[in-house]
Design brief:
about 290 residues; alpha/beta; Aldehyde Oxidoreductase, domain 3; TIM Barrel; elongated
């Protein structure tokens, strides 16, 4: 997901502004003359991958179309501390009112993109010729999944399923229920899912080699290898032998991902990309104020 639909941007920004402004910005309305104009810059206070600029633009244009937004970097650029990412010119009230909402989007999405970029860089150090892809998960902020998965893509990651509707994924708790329904239940579930959703990938979670064999027998075309050690991952990859895609998952960290990537898996899913990414520090600074009269 390398772009965001304009309708999505508009709707999410509208909701965010309504949450923050409510009946009006009573501080700015009282303190700043309506005709006051200003120029401001948004500055990265630390090195990062920039993500969220389309939302920054939308925040200020929705507040006041008289605010001109000039982007100084591109979405996905790696920038140094102190880099100005955009310049704003126009009514001072609008700039001040939109400041926090714009920064909230930018800080959150840049944090996700930056962490993703770090994981991708660690995978590039793996000893395998073909490097596995870094995947996100559904461990996202409710109502903001599309933004957070977009930020993963900006950072160089690959999006996993968007929700429960676009891939069949039989996880551990599904398997607990199916195990009580008999030996054929897993295979029957896969067959039914494939019949009803022929274009959806069939992913089955496995915690050990025995479950890997069961997933293969059931007809999975993608096996999620959960919380396995690197040695266990190598054994599972060898057993699967290319008959299904392989995905390592569970507690993946920056200090472990290179070793995991070296086992030969096709994918590594990392929940931390979206549930634990630290916001990047940006600030909005007024650079110039036009003197009225």
């Amino acid at each position: 997901m390398n772009t965001l639909p304009q309708e999505t941007i508009h709707n999410l920004v509208s909701a965010a502004l309504a949450e923050d402004i409510g009946a009006g910005d009573i501080t700015t309305d009282a303190a700043i003359p309506a005709d006051q104009r200003a120029e401001a810059s948004i500055i990265a206070k630390e090195a990062c991958v920039v993500a969220g600029l389309p939302l920054v633009e939308a925040v200020f244009t929705q507040i006041d179309r008289g605010i001109a937004v000039k982007l100084l970097v591109d979405e996905g650029d790696v920038v140094k501390e102190g880099t100005r990412v955009c310049v704003l010119k126009g009514p001072a009230r609008g700039i001040l009112t939109g400041e926090r909402t714009a920064l909230n989007f930018l800080q959150r999405l840049s944090g996700i993109a930056t962490l993703t970029h770090q994981f991708v860089a660690k995978v590039a150090q793996a000893s395998t010729r073909v490097k596995p892809k870094i995947l996100d998960t559904r461990k996202t902020t409710p109502t903001l999944r599309i933004l957070e998965k977009y930020a993963v893509a900006v950072g160089g990651g690959t999006n996993h399923r968007m929700g429960l509707f676009d891939a069949v994924m039989i996880k551990d708790n599904h398997r607990v229920v199916l195990a009580r329904l008999g030996l054929k239940a897993l295979g029957d579930a896969v067959a039914l899912a494939r019949k009803k959703h022929p274009n959806a990938p069939i992913i089955i979670e496995a915690d050990n080699v025995e479950q890997v064999e069961e997933a293969l027998a059931a007809g999975a075309n993608h096996i999620l290898l959960d919380n396995m050690t690197p040695d266990e991952l190598r054994e599972a990859v060898a057993l699967i032998g290319g008959r299904a895609k392989t995905e390592a998952s569970g507690g993946v960290r920056l200090d472990t991902v290179t070793a995991i990537a070296s086992t030969g898996v096709d994918y590594i899913s990392v929940g931390a990309l979206t549930h634990s990414a630290r916001a990047v520090d940006f600030s909005l600074e007024i650079r110039d104020v036009e003197m009225n009269g």
